[in-house]
Design goal:
single chain, four-stranded antiparallel β-sheet, 3 helices, globular
Amino acid sequence: MKLYVGARRRVFVADVGAADYVLCADGAAGESARVAFAILADHLGDREHASAARGHFERIFSVRLRAPFWTLKESEVSAALERAEDVRA
């Protein structure tokens, strides 16, 4: 299970059973659209699908992603993507 953590204009990923890593750094984490895309690309492993889902995802989490410190569970990412699929159906 992954946990995305935004702090000090960086996004870190804590991954149970794997090495933690930095997803966004150097100011990119200050832009919620770029952060949303980076999280989705990481979660989905597919940049094209991430690009298509970014708008919906950003609308749901934009306030949180703009905060100085935030966390986002992998399960929350999955739930947001499921809601997006429900809206399209």
